[in-house]
Amino acid sequence: MKDLRKAVLIIVLVLSSISQMNAKEWKIGVLAKRGAKKAMTKWKATANYLSQTIPGESFQIIPLDFAKVGQATANNSIDFILTNSSYYVELKNKHGVQAIVTLINSRQGQALKKFGGVIFTKANSPINSLSDIKGKNFMGVSEASFGGFQMGMRLLKDNGIDRNDFASLKFGKKHDNVVLSVLNGVVEVGTVRTDTIERMEKEGKIKLSDLKIINKQSTSFPFVCSTRLYPEWPLSKLKNTPDEIAQKVATELLKIKKTDDSAVKAHIIGWSAPMDYSAVDSCSKLLKIGFYK
After folding, report:
1. What's phi and psi for 144, nearest 5 deg?
2. pLDDT at residue 261 greater than cutoff 70
3. pLDDT surpassing 90 at residue 66
4. Percent helix, percent strand, percent coil in the chain, to nearest 5
5. DSSP states of 45-99
6. What's the mean per-residue pLDDT of the chain?
7. C-alpha dihedral (186, 187, 189, 195), degrees to nearest 10
8. β partners of residue 101
9. Where are the strands (E) in the chain, listed by range?
10. Helix, strand or coil for residue 268?
11. To 5 degrees, how large is the angle CA 260–CA 266–CA 268?
12. In whole angstroms, what is the distance from residue 197 CA to residue 31 CA?
């Protein structure tokens, strides 16, 4: 009987080993907006979590810059992609990617599935409304920044103001740089993603009272905001990624709690069912960016 049990155990171990050897390594591309090293630090624990919770499957994080996200999606060198909301819309329209979950961000202890943009000037500025921005020096984070330029630009365009109406248009590359440029008089008006100003105040870099928020929204959203709110980053499956593995990934991610290592490392609360990205699509269409260029 002992020999039989031993033989069964050996067979189980051998079969398990063969299963692991034959397991496909699923590649999760991540838009590494702050560099590959930081992307790996942030998301490797999520790949490890999926490898541990989905039997017989292995997952790997592939950091990608903006250009390589499109390339990797087009040539199917990845199986999943985590990218910002506007880039997701472009990939969906061009390559048929499909969101399977949306991340729930952790911002100063707040659980947020949406974010927005803030348009601001100095507290003592004569600029008081969106219409006053015409003819002024304007700064965003970058052309590709959804929260740090595209959201604010959509709001302005909805109110009859185009980029050609600025005296000048500059980009600060980082959110902090835009805020400081306004305070230091480099430009008259700036736009950044929500929570930037509060974070900088908490860090002692600025005082919120030194800034004037243009088109300030009165909502339950916990940070000052000028624009409508848009859904956070989605994790999507590529067109050729089997629905079966995508469902397993989504199921396991939805189980993550804010105290789990994968959530702590990623600075998120967890994940939710995929949100509606039609507002993001309409923003891209109006601004003629991405798929709509």
Report:
1. -90, -5
2. yes
3. no
4. 45, 25, 35
5. HHHHHHHHHSTT-EEEEEEE-HHHHHHHHHTT--SEEE--HHHHHHHHHHH--EE
6. 91
7. -40
8. 235
9. 25-31, 58-64, 80-82, 98-107, 110-112, 114-115, 117-122, 137-140, 168-171, 189-193, 211-214, 230-231, 234-237, 268-272
10. strand
11. 75
12. 24
Domains and their CATH numbers in the chain: 2-106+232-292 (3.40.190.10), 114-214 (3.40.190.10)
- The verdict on pTM exceeding 0.85 is no
> Contact, 148 vs 192, CB < 8 A?
yes
Q: In whole angstroms, what is the distance from residue 1 CA to residue 253 CA?
A: 43
Q: Evaluate whether 129 touches 214 at the Cβ level (below 8 Å).
A: yes
Burial class (CB in 10 A: 0-12, 13-18, 19+), 162: exposed
Task: Give 3-28 pLDDT, tens digit per residue.
Answer: 555 554 465 444 444 444 456 899 99
3-state secondary structure of 271: strand
The closest alpha carbon to 192, from 133, 134, 250, 146, belongs to: 146
User: d(Cα 205, Cα 254) in Å, to the nearest integer?
Assistant: 36
pLDDT at residue 160 above 90? yes
Structure tokens, 282: 């309409």
Cα separation, 49 vs 44, whole angstroms: 9
- Rounded to whole angstroms, the Cα distance separating 96 from 253 reads 22
Residue 258 token pair? 């804010």
Tell me how far apart the alpha carbons of residues 129 and 120 are, in angstroms, rounded to a whole number: 10
Q: Nearest Cα to 63, choosing from 83, 36, 38?
A: 36
Judged by DSSP in three states, 158 sits in: helix
Here the tokens at position 25 are: 């390594």
Rounded to an integer, what distance in angstroms lies between the CA atom of residue 62 and that of residue 57? Answer: 16
